[in-house]
Design a protein that fits this description.
Helix content of chain A: 10-25%
Order of helices and strands of chain B: HHEHEHEHEHEHEEEEHEHEEHHHH
Number of domains of chain B: 1
Helix content of chain B: 25-40%
Number of strands of chain B: 12
Largest sheet of chain A: 8 strands, mixed
Number of strands of chain A: 14
Number of helices of chain B: 13
CATH class of chain B: Alpha Beta
Oligomer: heterodimer
Strand order of the largest sheet of chain A: 2-1-5-10-11-12-13-14
CATH class of chain A: Alpha Beta
CATH topology of chain B: Glutaconate Coenzyme A-transferase
CATH topology of chain A: Glutaconate Coenzyme A-transferase
Radius of gyration of chain B: 20 Å
Distance between the termini of chain A: 18 Å
Shape of chain B: globular
Strand content of chain A: 15-25%
Order of helices and strands of chain A: HEHEEEHEEEEEHEHEEEHEH
Largest interface: A-B, 63 and 66 residues
CATH architecture of chain A: 3-Layer(aba) Sandwich
CATH architecture of chain B: 3-Layer(aba) Sandwich
Chain lengths: ~260, ~325
Amino acid sequence: MVKYNTMENMICVAARQMEDGSSAAIGTGVPTAAGMLAQKLYAPNLLIFFEAGAAGPILPTMPVSVGDSRTTHHSLLASTMLDTMEAGQRGLLDYTFLGGAQIDKFGNLNSTMLGDDYHHPKVRFPGSGGANDLGSFCWKIMVVTPHAKKRFVEKVDFITTPGFLSGPGAREEAGLYKGTGPFRVITDLAILDYNNPKKRMQVVSLHEGVTLEQVKDNTGFELLVADKLEKTPPPTDEELRILREEIDPSGFIIGRG
Amino acid sequence: MEKLKVGKGELFMPYDADESRHFFKEKNKKLVNKLTTVPEAVEKYIPDGTYIAVGGFGGVRISTSVLHEILRQGKKNLGLSGHTSTHDCQILAAGECFDRCDIAYVIGLEARGLSRVSRKYFESGKVKFTEWTNAALAWRYKAAAMGVSYLPCRTMLGTDTFEQSAAKEVLCPFTGAKYAAVPALSPDVAMIHVHRCDVYGNCQIDGINISDADLAKASKHVIITAERIVPNEEIRRQPWATTIPAWCVDAVIQVPYGSFPGCMEKEYFSDEDHFALWLKKEKDPEEFKAFIKKYILDTKNFSEYLELCGGISRMNDLRFDELLVNPNTK
């Protein structure tokens, strides 16, 4: 068994979530690595969209920007940002991968600011970018993030991107499309989802060597637990080989694990 | 009936379709030679207080030479459209050139990390800001490009992003569905870097267009920098390749490698070492000040900056990188 780090594990787990023939809007970093790995092993027909305007690329190497020329490499379309966003708005995009400084039990994400005064933030972050758009349009929102108490909080300081907002039915009430919303959270400790009537985050699978207590200790809100708690299979030798040799040979992303 | 929500953010650029139509009616449509220099274009079109927008995508096909010149001329109190504003935001924040910003994405440099200088500037209280998303700003350009005062879309709803925006909820007159209405945005000036254009400003862009065709139509004035100027015949030979037509454009400047250190499709890749240098220098305010002085304020023009960054041999490397054939890269 080949040794692996937490970043590699998260990428491999994320890559196994998308079925062949589905579509995904992905950003740079972990999502791109996961999308590339999925294309090479599990979903050769995964249709990748980048928010700056490229679609259907065969990625040669990791892009640094969602608009750089790697994203158009052997692509089917080099178009506009609105072309990607409108594809999402009319229901064409199945998955998106998002992240943020904070996430709450309903999957709401904060990538805007820390503090309680919007105009005088303690810490200012980039803002939505395309996150709110994709989180509003895509059918299934996936979040890949390290598990930490300061990140998994009872209440986010700012809802940049909608999860289930205040609970069941809140997205629809706000005017968002029916049937969209948070799908899974992949961390360095576990896989979590919202598959319960309360639309609350719950642990569904523990990664190799991780205990439920550990996951709870690293979560700042009351975490639900699925009826049947699974064990996440560790990365396979093949996944790791492709990830290290073909996808990220310079260690740009997996070196951060 | 349910009360419709109104974002409480400040609308920096109110739009009036009739006023805008009169402006475009008066705009010169004759094919005249618009070749000029970067300093002249900045001096003429970007007085203090101007609301500007930058084409491209932060570190992709940006008009670096114009951004540098804005710093050199010490422009102040500009308005900025932060439509994936990464390296452009970093440059303008270094000069504290803007005092209000429509934010979709600022401060960050995507996978490269965050700019401390930009972050500190937004935390300093010196900048007023209103929140948006990438699509919202793109649709705001689109609305102005269409000549209508708003567009409905289904983003931002239910979030603090909406609450801090200047959008308003509206109901569809046909279905009753709730939408976010985003107001048209017509920047005073857009600066856009393109692959090629003629002296009149008919532009061709290779690769993704991002939001630049709409931005060019939405803006009152457009400054084009181009990798190369081509004969008008080349434009007329394949008019379907024209992404920005001359009647949108006010100034044309030939600036080879004009997106450096950003990427330029099929020309050169981004200079990741140089981006890393910016982030490293930002860690020490004094060092950063000296860096900006040496690389931007004390350089006469963009060519001198390119020389400091490794000149032609570095550009050659980035050309190889772009085509994935760099013999020095594993």
